[in-house]
Amino acid sequence: MLHKSARPGYKRVVKNTALVLIAAEAVAFGVSYAGWYRLNTNREFRHYVKENYPTVLESYYQVGEFLGGDSSVRNIDEQIWAQERAAKGVGVGGTKP
């Protein structure tokens, strides 16, 4: 008769920990991709991020400039936001002239 021995406990812990870490990494990748996609396709969301989390938007622009080589998205955003401020009659610092 074949004798079946149990797996050592540490192997089970290592396997379960590895599975949890892989799942957490997949979730983190999905969330970060969703955030990048929203930043990349939605100018209003970029404006929200600029107002509330400027370092995140600056990092987004820097990565885009590093990978793409141009700063056209940043320039276009600034031009449109300046036009919107001018249409509302609000100065650059957020005050009316």
Automatic annotation (TrEMBL):
Protein name per its UniProtKB record: AAEL006520-PB
Listed InterPro entries: CEBPZOS
Organism: Aedes aegypti (Yellowfever mosquito)
Source taxon at top rank: Eukaryota
